[in-house]
Amino acid sequence: MEWWWQLRKRDADMERELQSDLDLEEEEQREHGVSPEEARYAALRAFGNPTLISEQTRAVWTWNGFENFLRDVRISIRTLFRSPGFSVLAVLVMALCIGAATSLFTVMRSVLLRPLPFRDPDRLVMIYDHFRDPEHNDQGFNYNPVAPADYLDWRAQTHGFEDMAAWYYWPPNLTGEHGELPEMVQAGGGSWNLFPLLGVNAAIGRTFTESEDRPGANVALLTWSLFQRRFGGDSSIVGRQIHLNGKPYTVVGVLPKWFTYPDAEVQLWVPYAHIGAEVLTHHEYHFSRVVARLRANVSLASALSQVEALQYQLHMQNLHAPVAEDVAARSLIEDLARDVKKPLIILLCAVGCMLLIGCLNVANLMVARSAARQKEIAICSALGARRITLIRIQLIESLLISMAGGIAGVVLSLAATNWLVGLWKDLPTALNIHPDGVVLAVACALVFGAALLAGLLPAISSTSKSAIAETSSRTYCLTAPGSRARTALRKTLLTVEIATTVVLLIAAGLLLKSFWRLHTTDVGCVTDNVLTMRYSLPGKKYDSPAKANAFNETLLERVRAMPGVRAAALGTIAPGAGYGVDDLFTIPEHPRMAAGAPPPEALFRTADPGYFSALQIPLLSGRFFTTADRNGRPKTVIISDQLRRQYFPEENPLGQHIHSMRSNADYEIVGIVADTRYQVGLPDMATTYFPVLGGENSTGLTFVVRTAGDPLSISIPVQKLVAELDPQLPVSHVLTMQQIIEQSLGNASLSTSLVLGFAVMSLILASVGLYGVLSYLTIQRTGEIGVRMALGAQRGEVVRLVLVNGLRPAFYGLVLGLAASVGAVRLIQSMLYGTSPLDPAVFACVAASLLIVAALACLVPAWRASRIDPMQALRTE
Amino acid sequence: MSSMCKTQERAALLQGTLDMLILRTLLYGPAHGHQIGKHIQRTTNDFLQMQHGSLYPALQRLEQKGWVISKWEVAPDRNREFKYYRLTAQGKKQLVLEQSKWKRMVEAVARVLSTAAGES
């Protein structure tokens, strides 16, 4: 602050010098015999304008520019405080817009732009199997999980990659040695080189060694979160044993806290080959993800071409099996962000539109204010203020507004980002999302950009020579030429604002309609009062089908006997809860397919005899399973209507057979049931149901209970029952059917409601803008309207005059916006479900609601104009 | 706006000379701003109307360059303080330099003017 005091001292010193010299001049004038009163003026005449002199003297000082800036800031702050309503409104608009933009940019930066926390992340790619079948790809399966034998061959026989690692999801039951609570966790089966390839070292202990990565391996790595949660952060767990599916595993290490790849759900790791030697020889079991590190100085295309060539060979050698012809690759970061990239870009566009509208609105407010301050500007200009100074002052004003808005916005965005990350389930949690320097820099750039956008246009227009000349030469005129130019500017701003709003509204409308379509989709079964939960019988304890069946049947029986339970059923996976697993089949009664054609596939499901009636899935023909369909005698299957339509279009499938590749056996078709959706928003798929008591030990099961009342109230009694039957068996995914469906809609609902929020904000901003412009215009035209009324214009005509005047920019904006929307909807086309991007209903609704809101915004000023008293109006000019 | 431009032009024109005149005035001894102005005006028989608008900035400039120093002192005849400016050694050197430059300039200009007059 030293320099500040020096500055103040020098200033005071100069004022004193000028004053003393001026006094001296006055005294001398008096001594020459001039009267005391005269002397003062004479002295001033001789001396010149003291203020100007001190200004010019100050100009010698080097700090001058900065001081001027401070002075302008002071003036601006004072002017802003003089109209607190305007200032608060403008700051609020800016805070919301900048805050929303900063939040989304924080997410975008963390998800798409910031390098991954791995060693040399730019060289990491994910490689997938790729089938050329176009129908397959249309359904979004272009990136297929890799078969283990494919991966092993790639790794051994190609040379473009430094190394390749693989992993898969594996959900085991986690139990302790001494009867601790059982828990079903998500685990990863990762090859030993996965961690060195990513550049990750264990925080405690070590990662897997090559020799540990073998079938039947019994070592495990904990993630930091499981280590803290279940083992209390006690590092003595390393070297001790945990039980997975009843088998002991030795913990060799704990992964660092930041490591949450591939997502936070994966709680622990076991070696890749642990799954068993036999499985590793298959080219058609697609369940692995392959991470590869590109060799330095090798292009991705050339490295990949080797893998492609090899994969095509593998395909030719296994024509009978679903072995991919091709491979597909994408960078690791893109792979992680796959589900959020598109919504994120759309949200950023939406928030960009809103920011633009916010800036235009503030610009509009500033134009209105500068109109009110035209006299002040004219006086400043007459007193010698240069145009650049006047523009600078106005720019500083808009800068102050956007800075206040920006600071509030950034604070707001910190909270908003957390909220958003909490809600947005698809965000890859391997990246931790937080603002950094770049985000702050972008926020600053936004602030300056917004200030420039909001301040420059009004500043330039209000300080133009014609605007100033008009005010200084103003006598009696109805509408001055300068103000007409300004009005045109405001109307242009307004048109752009409305056009942008229309684009946003249309996007929001389409997303909303698509969401509504999704929400009302029939999954094909009852969804009210249904509780589902999953468990998985460990193979070690339930080593024979009889043991598993005994458990399952006892559970079903006892739950059915519980009060309040309408029905209970058992299957692999509930409708709407996801893809699950699929199976390949052939139909022995049909002619053999041409060699090389991949066999048809169907979703693999199991069901107990009461499954379909419990879920109210209608039987179309044939019969349901009975308790006699057990242990594979007889081998029976129930097919979905979709399968019948696809593969038995002209014949009765009952009595024919399905040959399942999975178990390599024939099953007789005994029934046909209606279709269910495996996921809301995706088309029906052919499905085969096998008896749950069939004897094949399917690992994961979903237990379904339909209740009379609130289904959640029955969840604890059912879980207690499970614990009674087997205290070591954990239950997971306790969800109602409604929750399952809502979960799968969660992300669509989030992006829809955000875009809708932005659109509604924009509509409010635009209508406020319209109202403001029109009110101002009406006040400006008071004189003219007075003359018209004095000459006999009716009130109705005046209303029409003002309404037409205001609705014209709204109408132009609407037309412009509709035209722009036709192009803009392409961006969201792929996110729409059952909704055409040019949905006429949405377009019509948006047009109508915009016109209604615009008319309402115009009506108040129009009504006010019609109340003008002609005499009063003519006097005020 | 136009009047402002004129002032600036003139100040630029006078700048070198004004600095020299001030330094020269201070050669007689310390003086405050008003005295300096009055002195220049008087010695030129009011030919150079002293503009305070350029005098004070000039004094600031000279002080910044270290050619003069200032101090608040009581005027002998007025019994109150004025800001007195005093020539420094550096300022004296500068005055000599400026004077010789000025002399050469006047001679050169005079020569051009006299030959031009002779030829026509």
Please tell me about this protein's structure:
- The complex is a heterodimer of chains A (877) and B (120).
- Chain A is an alpha+beta fold and 877 residues long.
- Chain A has 4 domains: 2-61; 145-323, no CATH class; 341-520 and 745-876, no CATH class; 538-728, no CATH class.
- Chain A has 26 helices and 23 strands.
- In chain A, strands 1, 2, 3, 4, 5, 6, 7, 8, 9, 10, 11 and 12 form a 12-stranded mixed sheet that branches. In chain A, strands 15-16-21-18-20-19 form a 6-stranded mixed barrel. A 4-stranded antiparallel sheet of chain A has the order 14-22-13-23.
- In chain A, helix 13 (374-382) crosses helix 16.
- The longest helix of chain A is centred in the last third of the chain and has 44 residues, at 737-780.
- Chain B is an alpha+beta fold.
- Chain B has one domain (2-119): Arc Repressor Mutant, subunit A.
- Chain B has 4 helices and 3 strands.
- Chain B has helices at residues 2-26, 33-43, 52-65, 89-119; strands spanning 31-32, 68-74, 81-87.
- In chain B, a hairpin with a 6-residue loop joins strand 2 and strand 3 (81-87).
Question: For the record, what CATH class of chain B applies?
Answer: Mainly Alpha
Measured distance between first and last alpha carbons of chain B: 42 Å
| Arithmetic mean of pLDDT of chain A | 84
Poorly predicted parts of chain B: 1-13
Strand proportion of chain B: 5-15%
Number of helices of chain B: 4
Helix content of chain A: 40-55%
What is the ordering of alpha helices and beta strands of chain B?
Answer: HEHHEEH
CATH architecture name of chain B: Orthogonal Bundle
Strand content of chain A: 5-15%
> What is the overall silhouette of chain A?
elongated
Q: Supply the helix-strand structural class of chain B.
A: alpha+beta
